[in-house]
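ugh ok fine here u go
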Amino acid sequence: MWTNGLRRFSENHAVRISVRTLTVGIVLFGAIGAGLLYVRHHAPSTGSRAQFVSEAGPVATSAMPFCDPSELRRAMARNDGEIGPDEQNSIATFARTLLASSNNDASSCRQQLFELVASNETCAKAFETVATVIVSERSVDANDVRGLLERVPRRCQPILLASFPHLNDVNVELVRWVGNAAREQEDAKARVAFFEALGTLGAIARRKPDRESVRWVDDTLRDALAQHKGGSVDEYIGLLEGAGNCGCETCTPFLLDASSHPSPDVRLAAAGAWRFHSDEKATESMCSYVLHDSEASVREHAAWALRWRTSEVETRVNCLVAAAVRDESGLVRLSAVQSISGFVRQSRHARRALLFLREKEQPPDTRKRAEEAIAANANLMLFDAKDVTAAQHARDASRGD
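structure:
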């Protein structure tokens, strides 16, 4: 029944479907958000370890009449473990207040805060919170961040790197410093943190754009992947995720190689690493994971990855519809419908796909998610719904129903 429905969806909307896809019985986004879109989806990453705390907190955010970070110093010195959200907000708000202070010498306040971070020995949650505030401040440039990296204790560097998705500035000097430091790390876990952060810098450089930094990041990650053979799986995953964070254009041969790796974690990272690529090969690769990988976690992640670009949108929607209808995993079906809903503003084909997915013969959870997506985009869906209803009536009449 589902196969017939997929075929009908194709015929009604003039979808071009490959013979290969039909043979396996499975026929058959693009709004890119701001902020942390280039961090990994399936597990904590360089971005998600450093949560950006809210503005709310018990400490006022107005400029201070004086610059005194002593309370912050005491909080950072005594903290050697996790802290609650209220204290985290208080620490973050106080740090922002110091950075914004204008009633005294603002540069002196900034300098004291930088000194506080550079001299901290705990590398704990309070350090991570203050480091994230500093890195996310618009007045903090790439040279400031490089200076902090050079001065903080070596064991604290990965924590500072975790705040890089909040960074507003990048230059080739910071990129080179991080890339060279990555190659020098003896500890594999630290090396992974540096390579993932390097990929994040590449993404920020592409957004500027800073072509010299982009080229340096791409070449460094490509060389690291080429030299990795025989290395640990965890490091391989880190390199793939670094390549994915920046949409590394010179890394595509290694992404293709990873598709046949026996480890599902490696394949998952490789599937996500295609998300910022817009070429036909990228779409084909992600769809191949969605439709054919043996692990549900890989299929779900590939369905998520498809939503980040709008190139080849009909092909993307087709394989997502197939997953939403045919996949045995509810998580895969959910991810597929969510990705289709991301295309509705750009693609009439995506809007009609949602209307198809709400039909009664579809899996109940797929139908529910499609109805929710239709309701959330009611203004966009109105005319497509009328067209589809008219087409259904005409089809029924032709059959004599």
